[in-house]
Amino acid sequence: MALAIAAILPSVATTAHAQGGSRITGTVLGEAGQPLAGAQVTITNTTTGAVTNGQGKYTIISVSAGTYDVRAQRIGYSPASQRVTVSSGADAVADFQLSVLPANLTAVVTVGYTTEQRRDISGAVSSVSGNEIRDQKVATVEEAVRGRIPGVQVAASGEPGRAAQIIVRGQNGFGSPAPLYVVDGMYMSENPNLNPDDIESIEVLKDASAAAQYGAQASNGVVVIKTRRGHAGNNEVQLRTYYGYQEVPKRLNMMNASQWQALNLMAYQNAGFLPQDIPAGIKGSATINTDWQDAVFQKGGIQDYNLQMSGGSPTASYLVSGGVLDQNGTIITTTFRRYSFRVNSDARSGRFAIGENLALSQGNQQGLNGYPLIDVVRMVPTVPVHDPANAGGYGYGSTANPTYGTNPVGELQAQTNRYRSNQAIGTAFGELEIFRNLRYRLNLGLNYNDSTTTNWRSIDQLRYLTPNPFATLADARANGTSLLYENLLNFEDAYRDGTHRVTAVVGTTSQRVDYNRLFAFRQGFSDETLRQIDAGSTSGASNSGYTIPFRSNAVLGRVNYALMDRYLFSLSGRRDCSSRFSPGNRCGSFGAGSIGWIASDEHFFKSIPLVNRATFVKLRASTGVLGDQNIGDFAYVAPIGSNVNYIFNGTTTSGAIQQALANPNLRWQSNRSTDVGMDLGVLGSALTITSDYYNNTSDHLLVSAPIPPSLGSSSNPVINAGKVRNAGFELGANDHLGLGKLQLNTSFNITTTRNKVLSLGNGGQPIFAGISGVARSAVGSPIGEFYVKHVAGIFQSAADVANYKGPNGQPIQPGAQPGDIKYADLSNDGVINDKDRYNAGSGLPKLTSGLFFDARYGAFDAGVNFRGSYGSKVFNVVKWWTERMDDLNNSRAGLQPWTPTNPSTTTPRAVYGAAGAANGDVVSDRWIESGNYTRLQNLIVGYTLPARLSQRFYTGSTRLYLNIQNLYTWTKYSNWDPEILGFGDPLARGIDDGFIYPNPRTFTVGLDLRL
Questions:
Q1: Domain around 94
Q2: 8 band by pLDDT with thresholds 50, 70 and 90
Q3: Is the domain of 638 the same as that of 591?
């Protein structure tokens, strides 16, 4: 289309000039009255025009008599128009003064393999600057962007070193929802543990049009990260450091020893135990009163040091930085230390340019062991933390104090879970300017990760009646190497005085990933100080290892076309070939397109009442299809297991067995994305508003189909079946207010998400996940919706039990007693079973939001931000352990179970053992709570020393600040933290399974020096 328009326009221009006649002349000035050279002045709806000279003057010749709308524009400035009347044989004068466009419109944004000005983007792209990230003073990049970007949910854990989970516009399927990360051009499927101080910008590509250049790996969105580089000018040295501490913001109020004894004495008596059969620790006086939360939680220190040197000339630049982060968690023994080093440089000579980005890091993490966040509330207060009479010295209960909880302090001290990672992420490029507007670029990328995971378990006993027969050591060594090769041709040019602007890229990209893993297990260590594989016994030893190769190749292309700076078009295409599919289905072709219209640049815009008060209005729409290969490797073949014993003629014989069913017909999952949006600027674009409606549908889903064990498969085969839709609305607003010395920036965003399973394979049978299948993915419902029985109340009397009858008059819960839970017979068949389960909400939030204020007054600066999540449910496993009323667990203080004198309608009677099992049914809505929360995420106050005082310390500038994160959370959720990360199983999000490390409250003081 662009070529056709370009072919027609020269004849139109010739006709206009041939008409002869008068001229339009004038001057184009900037805001400060300075002449603007290179501005384009055109007669609207024609190609007749001129370009200003060095004095800002222009002349349009051969204009026939009449009245015209004349428009002046220049990149970086708001265009202006005026009506001009031209008389025959006379010159008309039209002078213009253009105002500078706000930085948020002229900022250059990386969209795939091309860069565009923000005003020219017709896809859905959101950005966060490095300054916004560094102002948060957090340990990871993801923590800094939480709540800042509409359409992007960031769920982070408080566990030191644990990466956050990013989900862009909802969950598209039944696999991992993680987006593709592109760090300085290098593809990464995992969340990169980068130093936040190294980040220059983050762009999130949310729709198919923006992400299409990255092809198959971009179906869940793309997070493009650019790191900082040096700039021409003086060499600069910066030091940033902070120190502080972290704490768990909330403690659960648990029963003390005497309260626990009274409750459990009641439970034994209600179960019919005789006094002599009740444990002495329950019916006697308590001599021990352990607060297990005090024993497990701590104040953990955090400190961070970053030193950066940078500089450059017009032809070369460099940046070198190094950092150390040291963090002790709010749970004992959990730690994280990261060492990072970065070198970025580039140089240009004539038509040649070269450059590189290299980041080296080492991470050392000591993580959680077992389920200490369940055991810290499950363990009873009459058991001590340490007991010298026990093997290993840990308290774990006795005949007098029976409990089946595990000592949480012992879990964290007698067991270790250490992870060390050495990583190199780098790219190098060489670029040749073939012509003025055509460049060839070679990109080479590397992501190398060498890791060691060590799990040690001492012989120390941690649980009553459960001695450890021996100490164990599991040692896993893994290394992954990802290599990227890209050949690209970039074209950029403008025609007819800028009436037509074209940027385009074509190229090939190849990625090679090799993952190697070795694993060794030993048990029986005679000397536990020798925690080495060779120090263990050969009895029960196991060794294993494997290599997984992955290869992908692609051809890509993208073209962006702007007509008259206000009609925007973009078209992308890519053909991907992946080794994860069989040879017949290996390749897939995908593409996307978008259009945009800057309506505020039209000559008639100023004549529209009310609407004309806006200074910038852009309408845009996009659609496209991306592929998805997120199935793991070798899913289309049948693996063979060797050294499997079987009986043949009465003799044990070793052989091989097919472990899973093959599916050579596997093909690409397709994700169709449609987006309609508007960008609005008012008050001189001091206030900008962006809104989008999106509808993403994933078809031919890659699903692990449940099959019966009788088919002889040890795992479920992967098939293409089902369809899922995500739809929602995004709104983001940014306001910049300047009142003298006061500068105030405000940003706000909200996102709605509606997830729905449209179809499933396997005859439409639902897919169950989570504890006791509490999460169900079924047609017509969201992924992983909670599927539970409904608690209809508490039986208050024997008559209530007898009168609760089915359609045929039979008792529905004949074994119930007064004080037991009454379950609703939703199927109306007179029996309480799985047919009475219903959909009780999802762990997927329906609405998320963020609100940020950043202010500066003279030397003082301050910032505060809030974020919220609404419409989700949480399945509280911790509550199940503390309120099930049929087991020897501790309970929350103030819990009042049903008694004849306390006819509770919410809490059943306490009854130990099988008689109370129905009250502790795990698949009931008694354990489901609202996951809504509003969090005061960050509060920071800073002061920059006067220049004369900084110079005394030989610094260019000095800033001191106080920062508080996670200051307060408004929520009705009863456990520590409503922000449920949902790691492990994307089909069971929203389950607080006791492995959710609470987000800490962090207090830090810091210093920023510029030397």
A1: 2-100
A2: very low
A3: yes
